[in-house]
Amino acid sequence: MLKIYGTLGPSCDSVDTLEQMLDLGMTGMRLNLSHTGLKQAEELVEKLQLAAQKSGIQPDLLIDMQGPELRIGTLPEPLTLEDGSEVLLGEGGLSVPAMILPHLFPGQKILLDDGKILLQVRSAATDSARAEILRGGVLTSRKSIALSGSRLHPPTMTERDLENIACARAFGVTAVMQPFVRSRADLDAVRAALSEADAS
């Protein structure tokens, strides 16, 4: 049987819209958890469940986890990074994963937001680093961060991923999507987490 999936989000943020989508043949929904958690998306999931009751169709609910991609922290508001200026990373500056700081070195390139913004490290210390903005832009919360010349190996799942798996059954999740799979070990880790949470 052919299955058709949509993405649960702002463009279908109403019971009526979701019911129409189900009536037109949609068989499941994907929920992107790169920037949020299942508990924060509870209202959206409840709307899907209500639409399912009204349409008489029980859709799949797939959660797309954050996975091992490195991301900056939460920003109180969008941050404009201007070409030629400097930005502080880490303690007292832009929130970045603590695990990357020991791996930063002068001259190293840093890509933010899937490469839209480019930085170059000028100086690095244990808990912070200063970088020049080579290609600026507007940065918002939870955007990706990638380091050139580094062999960092982030864990398969973040703490948020594990929290989402722990409550997956309660939210009616039927499948998990693991991004950025690097080896069989990543899939084994996901299976182990699902088993431990009694969500497999």
CATH fold-level label of the largest domain: TIM Barrel
Helix content: 10-25%
Alpha plus pi helix count: 4
| CATH class category name of the largest domain | Alpha Beta
Computed over alpha carbons, the radius of gyration is: 20 Å
Structural features, described:
The structure is a single chain. This protein is α/β, with parallel strands linked by helices. The protein folds into 2 domains: 5-68 and 155-196, TIM Barrel, CATH 3.20.20.60; 79-147, PK beta-barrel domain-like (M1 Pyruvate Kinase, Domain 3), CATH 2.40.33. It is 22% helix and 25% strand. The chain is built from 4 helices and 11 strands. The chain has helices at 15-23, 42-55, 159-166, 184-196; strands spanning 5-7, 28-32, 60-64, 79-81, 86-90, 109-112, 117-124, 128-135, 137-139, 145-147, 175-177. It has a 5-stranded antiparallel beta sheet with strand order 5-8-7-6-10, with no helix packed on it. Strands 1-2-3-11 form a 4-stranded parallel beta sheet, with no helix packed on it. Helix 1 (15-23) packs across helix 2. The longest helix has 14 residues, at 42-55. It is elongated and about 60 Å long. The mean pLDDT is 94.
Explain briefly what this protein structure is.
The chain has 200 residues and is α/β, with parallel strands linked by helices. It contains four helices and eleven strands, in the order E-H-E-H-E-E-E-E-E-E-E-E-H-E-H. The protein is 22% helix and 25% strand.
